[in-house]
Amino acid sequence: MLFNHIANKPISFYTRYIQPGWIFVKPNRERGHGQLKLSYFPGCSLESTAKEYDLSTRSVCHALGIELVELKDWVCCGATSAHSTNHTLSLALPARNIALAQEQGADLAIPCSACFNVLKKTDYTMRNDETMRLKTEKITDFKYNGLVNVLSLLEAFTTSIGVNSIAKSVKKPLQGLNVVCYYGCLLVRPPEVTQFDSRENPESLDNIINSLGAQTIPWSYKTDCCGASLSLTSANIVHKMVGRLLDAAREAGAEAIVTACPLCQSNLEMRRAKGDISMPAFYFTELIGLAMDLPDTEQWFKLHLVDPRPLLKSLSLVR
Amino acid sequence: MMSIINQEGLEFYREIREKSGQPIELCYQCQKCASGCIATEYADFYPNEILRLVQLGQKQKALNCSSIWICSSCETCGARCPNGINTRAVIDALKEKAIAEGLVKEKKIHLFHTVFLNSVRANGRVHEPVMMAMYKLKSKDLWSDLDHGFNMFIKGKMPLLPSRVKNRQTLKQIFKQSYSS
Description:
The structure holds two protein chains of two kinds.
Chain A: H1 2-8, H2 11-15, H3 20-23, E1 36-40, H4 51-63, E2 66-70, H5 79-85, H6 87-104, E3 108-110, H7 113-128, H8 130-140, E4 150-152, H9 153-161, H10 163-168, E5 178-182, H11 191-194, H12 204-211, E6 215-216, H13 230-233, H14 235-252, E7 256-259, H15 262-270, E8 281-283, H16 284-291, H17 297-301, H18 309-314
Parallel strand pairs in A: 1-2, 1-3, 3-4, 5-6, 5-7, 7-8
Helix pairs in contact in A: 4-16, 5-6, 6-7, 6-8, 7-8
Chain B: H1 7-20, H2 32-36, H3 47-55, H4 59-63, H5 67-70, H6 76-80, H7 87-101, H8 107-123, H9 128-139, H10 146-154, H11 168-180
Helix pairs in contact in B: 1-7, 8-9
């Protein structure tokens, strides 16, 4: 009888809760044409732990009229693990992506600060170090022409789009939201390589968030380290580093932290004291999307480990 | 200064100087790097002390220390150095040398880098769920972070199948040639 009961139900009864995201990386559809075309290097984190960053970036860019063309067949940048163990590899992996971007032609926008940093460093080496350039070209089998600019997504937003046009697209100002902007290490350092904003007190992200109607609070931990890849190997150290950041943010009077890096964001969410849900960490693209009143914000927020929706509800920014 | 160090020490200094491409000899111990370094609390040497160890050819001490592994490469030291020394590059050179000499102090961090790069070698991209599982198995640290892992899986952030690159040939070539040169 039990067997009959089980067999009589349609298959969908048992599979309805299974999501495709459990099994494979869902490919994101490319969206139509825009006035500004950028190549897009998502990086490994944006396929898994930072999925909401990828989703919000694509939606916001589409709404702002930017066409993001994902690099075809991009490879991992190698991250800390490559530059800690093999210098040649730490140039060759990013160089492969620069080669792909060169084929596509448009400037390259990179949301992940860690990926941005290694690609930018490789670009810098290719421009300034002849011997390393020749060696890397040989390994990755391409000819560097230096025509593609490597930009972080934040830089692309501030320089290519501009704060003014972001401000113009705001439909629902984020009134009453007090945040601190957390840039992390790799967007602004080393300064001779990144050539972007101030190394000690950057303001580009603050300007964007202010233009959305939210209030940014000055604090002195904008470019301090979150512990980055130590998160897995030395969790106790990262706990202390993140605790320091959260305390400072609270002391400054913020209700949330805005980041531009998947590593910072996941450390801020995962490595805090257990049960602490008071200080959510946003990706800046999510706030832009929220202020533009895009329909899919809910989908991003529910992917967070620290749910930001209670805070946003209390300010009646989401339903 | 050079007269008080032996031949082996001198060669070590020259090798790191060459490999990192940084003017290590210019460091005059102002400690601006150390005062900005977030890792000093957890490590055995300050960044300026590491530079001094290299200057003095103290190979054993410089290679077999935990500081170079605890360093999260945040680059604060280099950005503030009045002499333009990018200490992160020196530390990277030291790590590479420590691996070659078998003098790695923080074995778990080295293991993480190895597992990470193996994942890149296999798929062309890091497949985070398997990479983390491999790290946990090999480091015998099985029980931490299971809650976060499960939470992320439920939210669809931990896909069981990797996303792989199609051009295996170039990937293979990059790894082969990087490790042979």
